[in-house]
């Protein structure tokens, strides 16, 4: 019984905290800034392609959305793996991003399909003229 009460209390506190995060700052009239991190890709027709001159050689397709504050990358995943994007570093000259492919460990039987889903990362500041460098990494995740 105590465990259920603690779970319910924790859920209520989480809801209150989440609601407070979305409220405006007193006296500023503006919502709090959005933190860098994962984002949801918009449909392709709502994105702007990043010019080839801003991409490191060998980069996958890259777009921006939300005024350049979100970078969308064409990822690659397979039957068992999943891809996500994350920010590695951001400086005035370039933005380094990583495509992270999560593969199950131990390996399991999977379909032999390959998908190229868009994955997105919210930047600290809009991309503007900075160069985009995309790295690829594989990580092992526990099999489900």
| Silhouette | elongated
Order of helices and strands: HEEEEEEEEEE
Number of helices: 1
| SS elements, strand count | 10
Q: Helices and strands: which structural class?
A: mainly beta
What's the rounded overall pLDDT mean?
A: 82
User: What percentage of amino acids are in beta strands?
Assistant: 35-45%
Low-pLDDT residue intervals, each spanning 5 or more residues: 1-32
Topology:
Elements: H1 2-21, E1 37-39, E2 48-49, E3 62-65, E4 70-74, E5 77-78, E6 82-90, E7 94-105, E8 114-115, E9 118-122, E10 131-142
Parallel strand pairs: 7-10
Antiparallel strand pairs: 1-9, 2-3, 3-4, 4-9, 5-8, 6-7
How would you describe this structure to a colleague?
The protein is mainly beta. The chain has one helix spanning 2-21; strands at 37-39, 48-49, 62-65, 70-74, 77-78, 82-90, 94-105, 114-115, 118-122, 131-142. It folds into two domains: 1-32; 36-142, no CATH class. Helices cover 14% and strands 39% of the residues. The strands form three sheets. It has a five-stranded antiparallel β-sheet with strand order 1-9-4-3-2, with no helix packed on it. Strands 6-7-10 form a three-stranded mixed β-sheet, with no helix packed on it. A two-stranded antiparallel sheet has the order 5-8. The relative contact order is 0.21. Residues 1-32 have low confidence and may be disordered.
């Amino acid at each position: 019984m105590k465990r259920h009460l603690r779970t319910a209390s924790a859920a209520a506190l989480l809801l209150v905290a989440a609601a407070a995060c979305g409220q405006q700052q007193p006296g500023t009239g503006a919502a709090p800034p959005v933190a860098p991190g994962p984002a949801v890709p918009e449909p392709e027709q709502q994105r702007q392609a990043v010019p080839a001159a801003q991409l490191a050689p060998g980069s996958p397709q890259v777009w921006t959305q939300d005024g350049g504050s979100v970078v969308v990358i064409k990822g690659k995943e397979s039957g068992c793996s999943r891809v996500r994007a994350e920010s590695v570093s951001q400086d005035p000259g370039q933005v380094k991003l990583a495509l992270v492919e999560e593969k199950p460990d131990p390996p399991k039987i999977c379909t032999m399909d390959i998908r190229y889903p868009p994955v997105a990362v919210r930047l600290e500041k809009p991309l503007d003229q900075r160069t985009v460098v995309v790295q690829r990494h594989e990580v092992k995740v526990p099999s489900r």
